[in-house]
Structures are given as structure tokens and as C-alpha cells.
Amino acid sequence: MIASHLPAAAAPLTVGSLTLRNRLVATAHASGFVRDGLPLSGDAEYWGRLAAGGAALLICGGTTVAPESAPRQGNILQLHRPEAVEPLRARVSAMHAEGAVAVCQLVHLGRETLGAPSYYAPAAPSTVRSPREPTAPRALLGSEIDDVVEAFRVSSAHALAAGFDGIELHAAHGYLLEQFLSPRTNPRRDGLEVLERVIAAIRGLSTAALLGVRFSVDASEDVALTPDELAELLPAVDPLVDYVNVTVGVRTTYVRDMATERPPVLDDLARLRSLITRPLVASHAFRTAAAIGDALAAGADLVGMARALIADPDLPRKVLDGRETEVRPCVACNEDCRTFDPVLLCVVNPDLAPPGEPRRPAAPLVRAWDPPRATGQRVAVVGAGPAGLECALSLARAKVADVVLFEAADRLGGQLSTAALAPHRAGWAALLSFYERMLSAMGVDVRLRRTAEPGGELDAFDAVVLATGAVETSPLIETGAMGSSAALARGVPSLAGAGHVLVADDGFGWWPGCDVVELAVAAGVPHITFVTPGTAFAGAIPPESRVQLLQRLSGTCELDIMPLCTATGIGPEGVTVAHHTSGGMTTVAADQVVVVGERRPRAAPDRTNPLVLTIGDAVVPRRVAHAIAEGREAAVRIAAALRHGMTPTR
């Protein structure tokens, strides 16, 4: 049954010669199941699973049209090669089998190399250097523009031969077609003519195939079209295509992290709607039924999502059926979904896995495993951080045991609830809300402010899963510094009134140190010193997030970065800082010190239950993805043992 609160999203729509079953689109992204430029086993299964989730139109991305646009590691589909056609047929068949319309997005990167090594020199309409590249491209010769047009035609022919229903041209994110269209990167001003030639070449292959084009709506970089330039361009392109897809940004800014809480194209939709007659696709940061409804009300005909469907491919069916509370939310952390290491993975979705694996690989620590002694059907999960939450939920869904979740604190989430309190990091709160809703719906007995001591109530359980987390430690904490976890838990009051805060990072450049800096900014601290034994500030967070973080910090405070340095002590005169290169010492007169300490697993209580597993940070402190994957794996193993008996092997 379709939910009455979102009827517009459920309505079919005719685009070109095809009718879409609803208004929800999986916008361009790649599965990562590609090697040497060709699809691998697992690629078709990924796209079939995505189609089964209910999206009407699936746009496959990560597809280049020319050798000079393909990174040499071969993890992007190279559709100029005829040998790509046959393996792509399996991808298209999988999408069609689940009722989705299949479109292939084509891109030429031009001067943008994605930061990846290439066998060839980057080429563009001019030698204007990208701010994201160390060198300027070479300028395309006049005759080479014919080659660009032919590259799009040949790749389109291969896509259509594989069975795709249409083509989307990527003229956004600062890639080659936008480089042609922008007067700042194409002094010849023939960009529209080039785009028209590419469109005509594709139309010459098939008049029935869908043809769309994607544009960025903002002018955030030198190459991006200004609103006035886009307004002038759209009416000229509109009659030539079947739909227009709008998104935001350029490379390094087009994948917004959790600091972006509202879809950025919403404010532009009314203006854009007035400029075109074709269906309009609104893309980027749409994750909720409310945001989808806002886009459709503002003039979009279709709403596109990528990361939200990576986190939960069933989002369309759940939203359209009025089950939005069941959607596993994308938190926009930009971690695994942006690395393709080795394939597309997701921090919050443990079902995404490398080739040959049933789910994301994980190995809970086995402390006891004697299935024959498990005569009852009760499981205790001790600790309600991400590992414990996922384990409890997965066990409840398996319906093999009564599940009790113990948590010593007065709220769910563990360290993740602390991370969600950091400025611009509220995406984690959406994940915790999901777990809270689902645990309640599945009947999990959640016992807050309860410590499960040895020899106590845990003895009555057949299986015990220890997800007790870790604690932050540092010698500096013992001499007056505040731990980063404590600072974030207390929030702005922890740093309010400080004139100079020193942040002693652990050198690994991950989020805790960055979060403390943003907390200090939120507290109005005018001077911040960041000391790290590493080589850079924020060096390990996702590249897009680092760009956005630096943009947020610009002009907010005096931020001094001291790389290759370690804070060694706190005395009456200030913080002693050792310089690794010179061997010298400096004293920094800060009036508040926050340290990113080492996190150590809490001591695990001895247990004599038949089945005892340890998961998450209680094994070794790592990332959220490890915790969730180990929670799921522990649940799978315990459920199987309670059903049939098994040994603790994968």
C-alpha cells in the first residue's frame, strides 16, 4: 500500500519513450566491482539488488569514454572498449529483471585526474590549471575535439549494445563537458556547440534511447557555471534531451558530508523549473521522505539519491510504503563509500561486501563456544555502542532468542553518541535513532543504567556478547588535560571562556582532534594551537570532508598548526611541546588543554556461559564500520548455533 503522505513520489512518470514506476532515482555511482576497466563478478548482483529496492531509474556512474580519462589502476569502467559490452549485459539484465530503467552515465574527466595516476597527460579546452591538480593540462588541438565527440558516440553505442535504456552525459563537477561550457576554462566559447555535437552523435545511434544531461548548479570553483550562465544554457539544451539532472559542486566538494543537513539544490529548484520543459531530476543529500517531498513540491519531477541507497537499497520501497522509520540511514560520513577499497562498501551497511563474501568480513573474539550447553534461548548483549546495537538488532531479527541489551550509561550509543555531539557531526545521531526505533519495534529488552557484573544476572543467559567499548587514556589527562571524549560529551561549556586552547592530537589525523577544534570554534575560543606528531592537520579524514572542514574553519579563529611535534607535559608556564625535527622544546601558554588520547579496551569480565563473544572496541578500538560488522557477524554466528549448533568459523 502506498503511503498517502507521499503520493507524488509514487506516481509514474513518462520520460522520453519510457515510463518510470515512481519518482525515485539511483543517481550515478559505481559498484567498484571493476578491474582492468571491466566489470567483475558481483557487479550485476549489486545493481540487481539496488533495483529490487524499488528505485525506478538507475543511473550507473564511474564510466569513462577515452583512455586518457581512465586511471591506470583500472577501477573505473572503460566503455570505449568493445570487450566491455558483454559483461555489461549481465548488469543491465539484473536491473531490468527487477523492473528498473537502466541508464549509463558517461564522463570524460578532462583536466581532472581524480588524484589517480594515469598513463596519459590530462587534456582540456585550455591550459587553465585546476585548483585540485599540481599541473595544468595540455590544450586540446582543434582536430581532437572531433575525437572527443567520437569517444562519447562509441561509448554510447557500446552502452546501448549492452542493453542500457539510455545515456546520461556528465557535464557537472568540473569535468570535461563543463570545462567546455565554462568561459573561464574555454576561451573559444564553443562549449554549447561541442555539447550539441555530442548529443547529435548519440541521437544518431537511437532516437528511442533516453538521453539526459547532468549539471552543477553552483559556482563554487573557477570552472563551475554561475547561476546566470546556467540559466542561459538550460533553455538551449532543454529541447535536445529527455531530462535534466542537477547536482552541486566540483571534485572534492560534490560529495557533501554530514555537516550539510539540508539538500543544497532545494533553493534552486523553482528557478530551474521555469527554465526547462523536460523532467527535472534533483540530486544530492536527499535521505528522508520529508526532503523528497520538499523537492517534488519545489518543482523537481524526480529525486535522485546515491549514498542513501548504498546505506539501504530498500529505501524507495520503505518510503513509498510508509515505512520510513525502518530505513537504515546514510550518515554522510564519506568513509568507505568513497574509497572503493577494494569495492564499494558502507560504514553503516554490513551487507555490502567484497567478492565472494556473504557480508562485510568480521571476526568477533571467541571467549567461549560450547553450543551443546546452550539449552535455552536467551542472549545478553553488554554495551550499547554501535557494535552492541547492531548485534542486538540482528539477533532480534533472527528470532531465535530473547535479547536483552545492557548499557551502563543512561542513553544508547556509547562513543558514537559522544561523536554525534560534536559540531557538524549530527549524522551519527540519525543512526542511533534508527537503532533505538528498531530495537523497540523488535521487542528488545533494553536496560539502561545497568552494569552486568560477573556472577550476577548474566549467568542465566545462553550467550553473552561483550560490547563494552574502550576508554581514552593519556599521561596528559593525569596532569590536567581534558580528554577529547570528555570535552565533546560536555560540549561548548567545556571550553567556554578559554582564550587559548591547545589540542594535543595523537598524530593519526582522524576526527577526534578535528572535532575538538570545531568545538573550540563553537565556544568562541579566539586562539587554538593544534599539536600533532603527524605531518598535517586532518590528514586522515575523507578528502571531501577535509575540504569542507577547512572551508568551515576559514576566518573563524587564529589556528596554529604544529606538525611533527608532541605535547609532552603541562606545567605552570604552559604546555611543553617537543619538536621531532630539531629536537628542541617549546612552551605554549594555553589556558585549556584537550588531548586525543589512546583508546584502550575495557577489561572483559570472565564468563562461563556456553557462548561468549567480544566485539567492537572491546576487542581493539577501530572505526564504526568494524563495530557494526562485528556486531552483525556475532549475531549470525549465535543465531546459527542456537538453531543448529556450529563451530565458531566463518
How does the overall form come out from the CA principal axes?
Answer: globular
Number of domains: 3
Report the CATH topology name of the largest domain.
Answer: TIM Barrel
Widest sheet, order of strands? 3-6-9-12-13-14-15-16
Q: Regarding CATH, which class of the largest domain? A: Alpha Beta
Query: What do the pLDDT scores average to?
Result: 95
CATH homologous superfamily grouping of the largest domain: Aldolase class I
Strand portion: 15-25%
How many E-type strands? 32
Biggest β-sheet, characterized? 8 strands, parallel, barrel
- Overall CATH architecture of the largest domain: Alpha-Beta Barrel
Describe the structure.
The protein is an alpha/beta fold and 650 residues long. The protein has three domains: 5-326, TIM Barrel; 365-469 and 602-644, NAD(P)-binding Rossmann-like Domain (Rossmann fold); 472-599, FAD/NAD(P)-binding domain (3-Layer(bba) Sandwich), CATH 3.50.50. It contains 19 helices and 32 strands. An eight-stranded parallel β-barrel has the order 3-6-9-12-13-14-15-16, surrounded by five helices. A six-stranded mixed β-sheet has the order 17-32-21-18-19-20, with helices on one face. Strands 23-30-24-25-26 form a five-stranded parallel β-sheet. Strand 15 (280-283), helix 9 (289-298) and strand 16 form a beta-alpha-beta unit. Helix 2 packs parallel to helix 3 (85-97). The longest helix is centred in the C-terminal third of the chain and has 21 residues, at 624-644. It is globular. The mean pLDDT is 95. It holds the Pfam family Oxidored_FMN. This is 2,4-dienoyl-CoA reductase (NADPH2). InterPro entries: Aldolase_TIM, FAD/NAD-bd_sf, NADH:flavin_oxidoreductase, OxRdtase_FMN_N.
